[in-house]
Write a structure and sequence with these properties.
transmembrane helix, transmembrane, mainly alpha, 3 helices, two-stranded antiparallel sheet, 2 strands
Length: 136
């Protein structure tokens, strides 16, 4: 049995990168909106670190007890290592969807501080008096 499963390691590293991207995008949005909060930023970083440490701890717990049965569904036994992989995959998917949504919003919205209204079109000059009734 390998001590390090490279698929799990890649998934865990990818999850940490997604958490960091999520924090960075949220911070940029808050900075642009002039609503950045140091406490919220710090708490997001702590949450990301705790998630990473918890995944590492559960991974090693699964390595130490690979045959521990978590649940049996339709004759399929899911051990702790498989459950950890599924949890990491679910978290990876959730953060990826959130990050992609933030990126989409950032790409589709105008940058604050720029003139967001188009320049006015020049008015057409006519020979009619301004108070003349319009034809129907």
């Amino acid at each position: 049995m390998n001590f390090l499963d490279m698929a799990s390691i890649r998934l865990a590293v990818g999850l940490v990168l997604l958490i960091a991207a999520n924090i960075a995008l949220g911070s940029i949005n808050a900075i642009i909106a002039c609503e950045w909060d140091l406490v919220k930023f710090r708490n997001g970083c702590i949450k990301g670190g705790v998630i990473a440490l918890a995944l590492i701890a559960v991974y090693f717990a699964g390595y130490l007890n690979p045959d521990l049965m978590v649940v049996e569904v339709s004759g399929q036994t899911v051990n702790l290592m498989t459950a950890v992989s599924l949890v990491m995959l679910a978290a990876f998917t959730a953060y990826a969807v959130d990050v992609i949504g933030k990126l989409k919003d950032m790409l589709l919205t105008a940058t604050p501080g720029t003139d967001q209204t188009p320049a006015a079109l020049p008015e057409e000059k006519t020979d009619e008096a301004p108070d003349a009734p319009k034809e129907e």
